[in-house]
Each structure stands twice: as structure tokens, then as C-alpha cells.
Amino acid sequence: MSMAFFGGEFPLKTRILTMVRRVLCLLALYFSTIPSAWVFLNPLLYIMFFPLGIHFLMTMPWPLLKDLPDPFGRETTLYFLTHVYSPSLYDKTAWNALSTTLMFSGSLLFLWGFLYWIKSRGKLMTGGPYALIRHPQYLGIIIAVLGLSLNAARPMALISWGIMAYAYILLASFEERSLEAKLGNYRDYREKTWFMVPIPRSLGRAFQHLRARDVLIVATLILILYTMIVIYASYYFVTSLRSTF
């Protein structure tokens, strides 16, 4: 880095935004590496961070993409892997501001929930973010990784984010059934809070009464629909990624 950065040649706003983005990059590195160390300390955390690890692998730059042949020879079949969204589609400053905001807010929500989880010691958590939503840590990761995915501006990143969100929603849903069996007052707590995001209470209650198999079917159908929309809609708004290698 040149000393001019600190000498004032760049506007204060630009320097602040650059610093914020670098902090968020460090958080992204934290999200993708530190959980691996936690797993050795508590193997149960492997389940929590496994979807995040899959997302990280799926959205890496993958240098092999530059030589990846199209199986049908049309140079379009694998575009969602080998292309990025055209910069002409969006204002880069606004796009970066949105992705940065999502990464920052999601990271704060995750850390806030994680601190309460540490203090809970196996008891039902009803304070802090848990007073409103039952799975703030999962929601925080979903929001933060959405920011990372938007920053990557690749169809593959959005598809991977959808798969990761799908995994966390299912994981949270199955966890609730276990918590209800272990904690006698969990059902009352569930009636007073939202699953992850504010939705009408009637819809939330209907979701709670679905069987595990039905939750899996509904979530899978939504994921398939979302993935198909990203694949087919993105075709008209992408440019080749190969030239970046």
C-alpha cells in the first residue's frame, strides 16, 4: 500500500469505506477458517458450519474454469460457473455498499447471538436477539454470506448461497424438534418468537405443525425453483469470467 493512502490524497469517505471492506474481508476469512478449529474443540459445531464450508468451496475462483470445456460445445451450458454479472447492469458503488452492509450486519447478528449462546450453558435462550427470533446465528450467517455472494457477482455464488440457506433452514427446523423434546418450555417460547424473519403468526404456526418430511419437501421445491430462476434469468446478464484468469 502506498503512503499516499494515509497522506490524504483519497477522500475521507473512500478511506473509511476501504477500511470497512478490509475488516469485512477479515471477517470473511474468519468465517471460512476459524470454524474449522472450533470443530476440533466441539465436534457438534461441525454440523453448524458444514453448509458454510460447502459454500466457500463452491464460490472459490477455481482457476480450472478457464480451461473447462462446455460438454455440449455451445459455450453456454456452464455459463453460471464461468461467468460473472456484467458491471454495466448495476452501479458499482451502490452494489458494494449493499454487499458491505449485508456482510457487516450479518456478522454483527451472528456474533451477538453467539455471545448469548456461550452464556446460555445449555439453557433456553430468551434474551438479546433470541427475544425476537429463534435462530439469530443461522440468520446472521445467511445475511453475511449473501453480502459475500453479491460481492462475487457470480450466478454460481447466488446458487451456492441458496443451497447454504436451504441447509441452515432445514438444520434449524430439525433442531427445533429436538429442543422441544429436551426443553419443556420451548413450545411456549416458540409461540412468542419468529423462526428467522418476521412473518404472520398464522403462517408461522402452520409451518410449525408441518412434519419433518413435509418441511423437507417444501424447502426442496423452493430451492429448485430459486436455482432455476437464477440459472435461466442470469443468462442474459453475464459476461465471461475466463478473461479474469
| The CATH architecture | Up-down Bundle
Report Rg: 20 Å
Residues in helix, %: 55-70%
Number of domains: 1
Note the beta-strand portion. under 5%
Return the CATH topology: Four Helix Bundle (Hemerythrin (Met), subunit A)
Please count the helical segments.
10
The tally of strands reads 2
Task: Describe it.
- With 245 residues, the chain is mostly helical.
- The protein has a single domain, classed as Four Helix Bundle (Hemerythrin (Met), subunit A) (Up-down Bundle).
- It is built from 10 helices and 2 strands; from the N terminus they run ααααβααααααβ.
- Strands 1-2 form a two-stranded antiparallel sheet.
